[in-house]
Amino acid sequence: MTRRLPASERRAQLIETSISVFSAQGYTATTMDAIAEEAGVTKPVLYQHFESKHELFLTLMTDIGERLTDQVVASVLKATTPYERVSFGIKSFFSFMADHTEDFQLVFGEGFRAENDFLEIVERFENLMAEAIANLTDIPDRSLEARLLMARGVVGMVEATGKYWLLNPGGLDLNEVTEYATDLVWLGLRGRPPVGN
């Protein structure tokens, strides 16, 4: 018999279970039946909290994106130099990936391509990160639009690097992968050396 939980606790339990099921099976293959079974509840209980699989996945993506953004921003605000801003932000992003692998796979895996709503959430998160980077980047003779373009490239590079690191650890630890990615980004953001150097 399903133990009755307060609504807030039950919702939190369903969210945690859903992340695991979606991460393991992917959005398309996952069913509400599978989530209910894994959570140890009846399907009507699941539907009391979420009207559909679409709404549930949207909720998960929004929640994970906000937590990731908050963690990265909080880390960057502790920095005292421009280089630290880059390093702290990248390390925080990679730390989230390592500590919340299922969450990261859910947001950046197959699922976000399944519906336009999901894609929009990821794009909104990526744009917020790019805007933060552009505003923290001081490059002489670079307009805001140019800095936004470069920042969007940084976000894409960090995501791709992180995914590769998770799938192919190769013995690199968090500090090493952070150092390599930070140096790559830092050198790129510094721009070309003056002519003659």
Description of the structure:
- The protein has 197 residues and is an all-alpha fold.
- The protein contains nine helices and no strands.
- The chain has helices spanning 7-25, 32-39, 43-49, 53-76, 82-99, 101-108, 116-136, 144-167, 174-190.
- The longest helix has 24 residues, at 53-76.
- It is elongated.
Give a nutshell description of this structure.
By secondary structure, the protein is mainly alpha-helical. It is built from nine helices and no strands.
Give the averaged pLDDT, no decimals.
83
Beta strand count: 0
Helix content: over 70%
Radius of gyration: 20 Å
* Main β sheet profile: none
Q: Which oligomerization state do the chains in this entry correspond to?
A: single chain
Q: Treating each run of at least 4 consecutive H or I residues as one helix, how many helices?
A: 9
Taken as a percent bin, the fraction of beta residues is: under 5%
Overall, the morphology is elongated
Low-confidence stretches: none
Q: Which class best fits the helix and strand makeup?
A: mainly alpha
Q: Which sequence of SSEs, written as H and E, runs from N to C?
A: HHHHHHHHH
What distance separates the N and C termini?
Answer: 74 Å
Supply the key terms:
74% helix, mainly alpha, 9 helices, 197 residues, single chain
Write the layout of secondary structure elements.
Layout: H1 7-25, H2 32-39, H3 43-49, H4 53-76, H5 82-99, H6 101-108, H7 116-136, H8 144-167, H9 174-190
Helix pairs in contact: 1-2, 1-6, 4-5, 4-6, 4-7, 5-6, 5-8, 5-9, 7-8, 8-9
